[in-house]
Design brief:
The protein has 6 helices and no strands. With 141 residues, the chain is mainly α. Helix 1 packs across helix 2 and helix 4 runs antiparallel to helix 5. The radius of gyration is 22 Å and the shape is flat.
Length: 141
């Protein structure tokens, strides 16, 4: 699909999306060899947007690397299951902690460190909130 010449384009529009979505769009456009604008227009106007993908994304891992990664994750799941005293892998307490830490890190990186600190303080209501907030700040900087 070829688009109109640059001189024919007279209107600019904005698109709202998350940072992660924008990075994914940028990467897809790069893989296609298109500007982000041209990529978005072509995908939006395609009857079947997935058919507009010229070069499907390739896996970055070889089959052997994928197998090794799955085996490593399975081994980690077995080991972390024992940390919370249950036989379940990865164990609810470990899984909850990982998700909690990921969310705190995400908020801090997104410039919402103050909000994250206030939420911690409202839940914990003691000195642990400040300690956790400082730990997250150090980890994400």
């Amino acid at each position: 699909m070829t688009g109109p010449r640059k001189a024919e384009r007279v209107t600019m529009h904005s698109v709202s999306c998350t940072r992660l979505e924008w990075e994914r769009i940028r990467e897809c456009a790069r893989r296609e060899g298109l500007s982000i604008s041209r990529y978005v227009v072509e995908r939006a106007l395609a009857r079947n947007p997935s058919a507009a993908v010229r070069n499907p994304p390739r896996l970055h891992l070889t089959p052997d690397e994928q197998r090794a990664m799955v085996e490593t994750v399975a081994a980690l799941a077995e080991r972390t299951g024992a940390l919370d005293g249950t036989d379940e892998a990865p164990g609810f307490a470990v899984a909850a902690r990982v998700l909690f830490e990921m969310k705190m890190d995400e908020m801090s990186r997104a410039g919402r460190h103050g909000t994250m600190t206030r939420l911690l303080d409202s839940v914990l209501q003691d000195s642990r909130a400040a300690r956790l907030s400082e730990e997250v700040y150090r980890r994400t900087r």
